[in-house]
Write the structure tokens for this entry.
Amino acid sequence: MPRYLIELTHGDEYAACVKALAAIERSGSHFVTHAEWGCNDGAHACWLIAELDSRNDALQMVPVEFRQDARIVELNKFTREQIASKIVELNE
């Protein structure tokens, strides 16, 4: 099953942080218990990695008010062999 990184950003004002937290809380979604937040370090966003069937399923997890600007990234890993092969391709 594909894994997706879901990123939601918001403004750096205190009120924007509270609004984002409230939206997540209202959504009752997986975000409440699994999201990682960067606000305390000045990175006003939250991130969640989830295994889902599709990019659309990932987007549906996002509270409506954040969907337009949400960033959804399908994640993958490379084996050492794949990395070596790509390096060889680049040098050809």
